[in-house]
Design brief:
By secondary structure, the protein is of the alpha+beta class. It is built from six helices and 15 strands. 14% of the residues lie in helices and 32% in strands. The longest helix has 10 residues.
């Protein structure tokens, strides 16, 4: 997948968006599913629709903080056939997602109560490395444009991480010989609290052929950025644990809808590096 190597940072003045209010972004809907676990790969590349059922934007990326709390959707607006588009950072609080089954396939249908014209007028992301997300004045102006209230607390969001920066990154397992095993293939967002709960790791195979997938708790991973703005991902979960873990099936990973399956996956969460 396309990699964008840019650094997202937050100063203490930038506060975390509230991710738990009723009726907020990615809220549960009457979708044909028992819970609302949505793969990031089902969000990135999808369209956002307005109240008139018109497509008004395409999702280019997801931005979360180090705790996995989704903060923004980076979307493309304007342009023709994808050319000449500008990017804006839509607070996740301004978007609703219904994860539904259509013609036997799962899809994330995102909506927001904003016209195309209004969305096109949103503050643009123009600086290198999307430095606007470090500017408290810009963040406040952006929040006002989308009619998003201030966060309920004043704790800083900390570093912000783009999905595109960690997708396909090799996962370093917790073996004493430092053997690498697998790569990060997807993230699973719980739409009830707008937080990444699981990471899907591809193991085995060659060049993506014959690869199988396992889920681990997101909090079992440690994401570290170097001075070149590249990420490494480490975990104390061992290669043996990954190979013996229950498999999930791409692209929906529907096995995670089972509470018992989630419990088995969460047994690995205590393996997180301290």
């Amino acid at each position: 997948m396309r990699k964008q190597r840019f650094l997202y940072g937050c100063v203490a003045a930038i506060t975390a968006l509230s991710l738990a209010s009723v009726g907020q972004a990615f809220e549960k809907s009457e979708a044909k599913t028992q819970n609302a676990l949505v793969p990031t790969s089902k969000i990135v590349g999808s369209y956002i629709y307005n109240a008139g059922d018109e497509s008004i934007a395409s999702v280019d990326d997801i931005v979360m903080n180090a705790k996995g709390e989704v903060q923004y959707l980076i979307v493309g607006v304007g342009g023709v056939a994808g050319l000449g588009q500008s990017q804006v950072a839509v607070p996740c609080k301004a978007v609703k997602c219904s994860y539904t089954t259509v013609d036997g396939e799962r899809e994330c249908r995102m909506t927001m109560s904003m016209t195309q014209e209004k969305l096109n007028q949103a503050p643009k992301l123009e600086q290198e490395n999307h430095a606007e997300l470090m500017d408290n004045n810009w963040v406040t102006r952006n929040r006002t444009h989308f009619s998003v209230d201030s966060a309920l607390n004043d704790k800083p969001a900390g570093k912000l991480i783009a999905y595109s920066n960690v997708n396909d990154v090799t996962v370093q397992t917790g073996n004493t010989d430092q053997t690498t095993n697998g790569q990060l293939d997807d993230l699973i967002v719980d739409t009830a609290d707008h937080k990444v709960k699981f990471a899907v790791i591809g193991i085995g195979g060659a060049l993506g052929i014959g690869e199988s997938y396992v889920a681990v708790p997101f909090n079992a991973l440690q994401l570290t950025e170097n001075e070149d703005q590249e990420y490494t991902i480490t975990t104390n979960v061992t290669t043996q644990q990954l190979n013996s873990a229950p498999k999930v099936t791409s692209p929906d990973y529907s096995e995670l809808e089972s509470q018992d399956f989630q419990k088995n996956v969460n047994k690995m969460k205590n393996s997180k590096k301290q």
